[in-house]
Structure formats: C-alpha cells, structure tokens
C-alpha cells in the first residue's frame, strides 16, 4: 500500500526542479515577491518579519503551515497603534532648534509618519497575503507566473479566503473569550479552581482539542482548499465540500500526510540551515576581504582606528546585501516552492480531479486541471488519439496544458459524420466494395445486383 504523504516527497522534488530550473532571473524575482507575502516556506516567513528578522525567519523556514502574512501584519498593527498614540501625544510644533537638535514635536511627527507607513504596509499585507496563496498555486499548476495577471485573476478568491479565515478565527476566539469573561464577572477566582485538578485537566483537554480543530481547519483551508478553488473556481465552502469527503474517507492517509508534513518541515529547516551556513561562509570571506582592503588603504592615509572602522563598515555594506540577495532569498524561494509542491502532490493523490501537477509527472498519465478548466474540458478518452494527430495539434494544445479540448473531439466526430454522409451520397445503392469481384471484374451490391449495370435487376 502506498502512502500519499510519502509518495508526494519525490513528486515535490520533480515539481520544484522543473518549476525553478533552468534558472530564469525573472521567475525567481517574481517568486521572491510571492514569498514575501505567503511566507518563506514556514511559520516565520511573513511580511512583517521579512523586514526585521531574516535570521529568525530562516531558522523557521520549514514545511509548517504557519500563519500567513496577514497574521504577522496584524501583529505589526498591534505594535504600530501604540507608536501612533505615542507620536500623537508628543506631537507639538515640528520645529528644529538652531543647533540641529530636534524638539519633541519633530520626534512625534516622525513617529506618526513611521507608524502610518507600518499600518499601510500591514493592511496591504493583510489584503494581498491570501491573494498570493492562489497566485502561488496557480503558478505551479500552470508552470507560468505573471504577477499582475494572476493577482487580478485571484483577487476575488483571495478576499473570500481572507473573510473565511477572519470568520473562522472569530468563531474559535469568541466562545472561550465569552466563557472567561463570564467567569471573571461571576467572581470565580483562580484559587477556587486550583483545588479541583479534575476540572483543570478537563479544561486543558478541551482547550487542546479546541486548538487542534482550529489548526486543522485553518491549515487544510490553505493547503488543500485553496488548490481546490483554483481547480474548480468555486468558493471556500465549495472547496471544503470537495476536499472533506476525501480526507474523511481516508483517515489513515490524512494522518500520515500530517506526520510527513511535519517531517518534511524539519528536513527543510535542516537543509536551509546548512545552505545558509555555506552561503554565509562564502559571503563572509568576500566581505572580510573587501573590509581588509578598505581598512588597509584608509589606515595608510589616516589613523589606524579610522581604517579599522571603515573596513568593518565596508564589509557590512557589501556583505549584508549579498547575504540577503544571494543566500536568504534564494533559500526562501526553494523552501516555499518545495513545501507548496509537496502539498499539491499529496492533494493530487487524494483525488485525481484535484491533481494540479499532472504536467510534471514522468508517466504523463494526468494533465493540468487548472489549465484544463481554463482552456477546455477533456473527455475520458482524450488520451486515445493517434500519435499523428497529437503531432499536428501540438502547438494548438500548449495553451490547454497538454489537454485536447472537448470541442476538438466534437469537431472530429462531426467531420467523420460528414465523410460518411459523403460516401453514402456517392454510392447510393450501397455497393459492397469489400465483396469479391466476378470473373469479369464486375462488383455486385449487397443484393447481388451488378453495380456497374443498373439494368441488371430488370434482366434478372
């Protein structure tokens, strides 16, 4: 018996290799932008942390389906709102003293400006993060990534996903918050519960189960329901109606997938860390060489302390951007692509109608559902056409992801019907050309009449 979560590991390797290589600078740059909104392959890869803690995000770059960029954007809002309040409180006359030392009013104005920028970026991340989830899935499914086109295509679905996740969070947060509020208002103290260990244990079990259910729904909404929405174009609820029966009917496969997803995430973290160490070592040696050269030159022209300071500064100016551009961002793209490919590969094994990576499979047994639904609808016998027909229609079928639209089959059947009708019209008496000829070379029809002599019936 094969396990979907295990088989998807090799499939994801093939998809990642074919999607990212041969190397295309344009595609990699676009994937960097996508990764900034969807996360760098793990729970740490959100938009807010991208600006402030690249190292921590890399350490968390695994296969875990953590919160999307919108969640970190909400956290950024929680930081920005107090900053905005502080800036407003300290806002005064934004003038500078003659000595160039800013007054409190100027500091307050700068704080407000920064807070507004943070809020704007956070809101943009909240709106675009779910959209980019669809962009990423569609890009892998079609082996094509066009940001502006794909954002416009999936904007509606992204807003649907955002609304669903907000509603889901509210549905899971409000009930326990209401219970806690009721206990506080009723005067129940923590000391009174401390003497009831069974009650505490029961509450803990319920809380753990509650969190597990929420994590399951939220996680599979992103991992499986989003691809289902890309495949059939429906909403979030419609996607769950397609995904849930498959998960429910295969509980063993679902459990193995969850465990394997965790192991894949750990593996990605290890690989990411090793790649980071190698890349950081190379970049560090290069930056150290540049810093040493600058320090040596400036030490000869000025003081030794100044030369050391300038050398360190030059090393940082060169090393940090190179580390981000040449090491962190490529690792982020690799881990994100592999994680998402793994999820799509596993989903495709749960149900063939949800297989979005058929174009990458070596056996070529299934095609690209996303491209099929955009370009046409395959019949079940679409793969039985002759090699010659496929060769002549190869260029026309590229836009359909290798599928032959159903309209092509209808046209072929219509042409075949016209040919039969033409043959019948040219041979109205039903001559059987497959019947043997007489000794004199005369063919006879099915009734034995001479097809070359219309008077033969009368003579007989």
TrEMBL record:
Question: Per UniProt, what is one Pfam family of this protein?
Answer: DUF7544
Q: In what ranges is there compositional bias, type Basic and acidic residues?
A: 430-449
The portions of this protein that span the membrane are 28-48, 69-89, 109-141, 162-186, 198-217, 255-288, 308-331
Query: Which intervals of the chain are annotated as region Disordered?
Result: 368-460
Q: Where is the composition biased (Acidic residues)?
A: 391-400
> Keywords of this protein's UniProt record, alphabetized?
Membrane, Transmembrane, Transmembrane helix
Q: What is this protein called?
A: Membrane domain of glycerophosphoryl diester phosphodiesterase
């Amino acid at each position: 018996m094969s396990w979907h979560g295990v088989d998807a590991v090799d499939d994801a390797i093939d998809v990642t290799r074919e999607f990212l290589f041969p190397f295309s600078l344009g595609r990699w740059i676009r994937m960097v932008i996508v990764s900034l909104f969807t996360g760098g392959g793990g729970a740490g890869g959100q938009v807010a942390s991208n600006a402030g803690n690249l190292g921590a995000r890399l350490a968390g770059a695994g296969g875990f389906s953590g919160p999307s960029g919108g969640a970190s954007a909400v956290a950024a809002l929680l930081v920005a709102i107090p900053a905005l309040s502080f800036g407003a409180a300290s806002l005064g006359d934004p003038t500078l003293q003659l000595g160039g030392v800013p007054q409190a009013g100027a500091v307050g104005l700068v704080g407000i400006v920064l807070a507004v920028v943070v809020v704007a970026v956070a809101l943009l991340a909240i709106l675009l993060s779910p959209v980019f989830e669809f962009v990423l899935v569609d890009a892998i499914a079609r082996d094509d990534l066009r940001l502006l086109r794909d954002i416009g295509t999936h904007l509606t679905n992204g807003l649907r996903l955002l609304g669903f996740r907000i509603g889901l969070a509210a549905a899971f947060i409000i009930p326990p918050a209401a219970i806690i509020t009721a206990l506080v208002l009723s005067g129940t103290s923590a000391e009174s519960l401390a003497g009831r260990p069974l009650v505490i244990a029961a509450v803990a079990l319920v809380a753990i189960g509650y969190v597990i259910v929420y994590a399951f729904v939220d996680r599979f909404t992103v991992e499986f329901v989003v691809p289902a929405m890309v495949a059939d174009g429906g909403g979030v609820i419609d996607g769950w109606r397609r995904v849930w029966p498959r998960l429910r009917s295969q509980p063993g496969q679902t459990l193995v997938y969850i465990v394997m997803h965790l192991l894949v995430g750990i593996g990605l973290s290890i690989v990411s860390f090793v790649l980071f160490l190698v890349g950081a070592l190379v970049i560090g040696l290069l930056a150290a060489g540049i810093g040493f050269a600058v320090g040596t030159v400036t030490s000869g022209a000025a003081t030794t302390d100044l030369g050391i300071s300038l050398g360190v500064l030059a090393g940082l100016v060169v090393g940090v951007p190179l580390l981000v551009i040449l090491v962190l961002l490529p690792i982020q793209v690799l881990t994100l692509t592999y994680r998402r490919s793994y999820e799509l590969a596993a989903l495709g094994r749960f149900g063939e109608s949800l297989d979005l990576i058929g174009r990458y499979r070596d056996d070529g047994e299934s095609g690209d559902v996303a491209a099929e639904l955009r370009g046409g609808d395959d019949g079940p016998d679409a793969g039985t056409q002759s090699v010659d027909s496929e060769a002549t229609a190869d260029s026309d079928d590229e836009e359909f992801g290798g599928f032959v639209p159903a309209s092509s089959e209808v046209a072929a059947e219509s042409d075949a019907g016209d040919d039969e009708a033409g043959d019948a019209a040219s041979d109205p008496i039903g001559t059987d050309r497959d019947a043997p000829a007489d000794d004199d070379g005369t063919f006879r029809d099915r009734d034995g009449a001479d097809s070359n002599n219309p008077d033969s019936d009368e003579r007989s």
